[in-house]
Amino acid sequence: MRKFREPSVLPGFGITLGITLTYLALIVLIPLSGLFITTAGVSFDEFWKTVTSARVISAYRVSFGASFAAAFINVFFGLIVTWVLVRYKFPGKRIMDAMVDLPFALPTAVAGIALTALYAPQGWIGRYFEPLGVKIAFTPFGITIALVFVGLPFVVRTVQPVLEDMNREYEEAAVSLGATRWQTFFYVILPELTPALMTGFAMALARALGEYGSVIFIAGNMPGVSEIVPLIIITKLEQFDYTGATSIAVVMLMASFVMLFAINLLQTWSRKRRDE
Amino acid sequence: MNKFIVGIVAALMALLPLPTRAADAIQILNVSYDPTREFYEKYNILFANFWRGKTGQEVTVRQSHSGSGKQARSVIEGLRADVVTLALAYDVDAIAQRGRRLLPLDWQQKLPNNSAPYTSTIVFLVRKGNPKQITDWDDLVRDGVAVITPNPKISGGARWSYMAAWGYALTKYGNEEKAREFVTTLYKNVPVLDTGARASTTTFVQRGIGDVLLAWENEAYLAESEFGKGKFDIIIPSLSMLAEPTVAVVEKNAVKHGAQDVARAYLEHLYSKEAQELVVSFYYRPSDPEIAAKYSERFARLKLLRIDEFGGWKEAQKKHFDDDGVFDQIYAQ
C-alpha cells in the first residue's frame, strides 16, 4: 500500500479508503449491480430485441436529444448568469443567487405541473404561441424546457467558484498587451473556465437523462414523439416486465457512464493542456 | 414522486411494530388504488364500529393508495398488505401469480360477484353545452375531436376505456379488422397520453385541453360536483364496460399477523347494506340488488360489457397492451 500513499501530516489512509469503498459499494455499486443481475436472466437476443425496438429507439432519441439540447442551453446561459453573479454588484444579487438553487429544492413534479400550466395552449405563455402554430407543451420542445429548468443550478454552481477564484490581473494584462475584448474572452477567460463548464455540462446532462417527475407532465407522452426513456421503463414495470425494464435501464446506465467518462477524460485533457 | 414517498412511508409503517393500545386491538393494512381514498376513509370508520359491536375488538385500518399496478408490485415485493382493493382483477392476479403464494390462484371465487363489491363504468365528460355534439363512441373518431384518456399501458382506468371502445366497435361492426381501425382512429385523436386517470382529469379540467374526457363514472361525477355544476356535462354512451374493481385477502400476510378473520370480515362487510349505501354516495355502482334498485335513477342505464367477454384480463392484456400488442401497433407506423 505504501506506494499509493502521498506524504501527509494526517494519518488514516487505510481506514478512510476502507470507508470509501464500503460506502460506494453500499450506495452505488450494490443497487446498480442488482440491475445487471436481473438483466442477466435474459438471453442476449431477447435483450437486444428489447433495447432496439422502434419505440425504445425513438425514446432514446427524445431523451438524449432533449438532454443534450438542455445541457447546451444551460452552459451558454448558465455562464452568463454566473458572470453576472460573480462580476457585478447590484441590489437583489443575493436573492438572485439563492434563486438559482430553487430547481434543486423544488419537487420536480411541482415544477412540471407549473411549467405545463404556463406552456399549455391555454397557459400564460402558451396562448401567445398557439396562434402562431407553435406548440410548446406536449412536444419535445416542452421536454427541453423542463430539462433546462432542472439543469441550470449544476452549471452555475460548478462555474461560480472557479470564476470567483480567477485572477483579474490576467485579463488586465491581456488588455494592456493589446488584446481585443473578444480575444481576452476567448483566449484568457474561456480556457480557464472550460473544465468547470464541462463538469457543469456533464452534470446537467446526467440529471436530465434520469429526470422523470417534471418531464412527464409537460411531455404529452406520445409514443414515438415525446416519450422519454424513463417512461418506457415505467411502462415495462407496469406490465410486470422486470427484465425488460432493467434491460433498458442497463443501456441507459452504460450510455451515461460512457458519456460521463468521456467528458471526464476531455476535462483532464483540457486541464493538462492549459497547465502546459 | 410524492406517491413514491407515500409508498415508502406506507412500507416502513408496515414494518414497524406499532404499540398496541388495548391487549386485543388489531391493525390491518388495506392497499388500494388512487380514487378510493375518500371512500375507504369513511368505510374504515363504519367497519371499526361494526367490528367493535360484533366482537368487542378495536380495529384500526391503515390505508395505502397509489396507481393500481404500482400497488400490486409493492405487495409482490413485500409490502405487508392484509387486504388489497385494486382497480382490476389483472393486478390481483399478478400478486397471486408472482407473489410467492401470498393468495390462492382462485381468489376471485372467494367473495360474491367476482370479488367486486362495487362496480363502475366509463363515461364521457364534455364541456358545458356539448359544443362538439358528442353523444356516443362514433363521435370520438370524427376529425377535429380531441379525446383525453391516459396511456392504457400504464393506467388501469385507461384499460377499461380502451376496452370499452374496442367492445363498441366490435359490437357495431362485428369484426376485429374494423375494431382495430376504430381504436386506431380514436387514439390518433388523443393529443396527450397522461400516465394516470387523475392526470388526465387535470389535463381536461384545468388545462382546458380536449373536447371529451373518458372517465370513471365516479370521477366524472366528482369532477362535475367539485368544479361546480355548469362547466361540464356527463354524456352516457350507448355501451361501455362494467368495470369491476376487485378485492382480496392477502392470506399469507393476514395469517402471519393473526388477522385473517378481521381481514375477511373487512371485505365481506363491503357487501352489507350500510356499506353499499356508502358505495352509492361515492358514485360507485352497488352490487347489492336491493340497493341498486333503490338508487336506480341515480345511475344511467346502458349496455355494459364484462371483461370475460374478451377472454378475461389475461387475454386482453396479452393481446392489446403487452409489447407489440394492438395498442402499440396504433403508434407503430
Describe this structure in words.
The complex is a heterodimer of chains A (276) and B (333). Chain A is mostly helical and 276 residues long. Chain A has 2 domains: 1-40, no CATH class; 43-275, Orthogonal Bundle (MetI-like fold), CATH 1.10.3720. In chain A, 77% of the residues lie in helices and 0% in strands. Chain A is built from 13 helices and no strands. In chain A, helix 1 (13-39) packs across helix 13 and helix 8 (140-165) runs antiparallel to helix 11. The model of chain A has no long low-confidence stretch (mean pLDDT 88). Chain B has 15 helices and 12 strands. In chain B, the strands form 4 sheets. Chain B has a 4-stranded mixed beta sheet, sandwiched between helices. The longest helix of chain B is centred in the N-terminal third of the chain and has 19 residues, at 37-55. Chain B starts with a helix and ends with a helix. The chains are: A mainly alpha (276), B alpha/beta (333). The interface between A and B is medium-sized, with 31 and 30 residues.
Which descriptors apply to this entry?
heterodimer; A: 276 residues; mainly alpha; MetI-like fold; 13 helices; globular; B: 333 residues; alpha/beta; D-Maltodextrin-Binding Protein, domain 2; 2 domains; 4-stranded mixed beta sheet; 15 helices
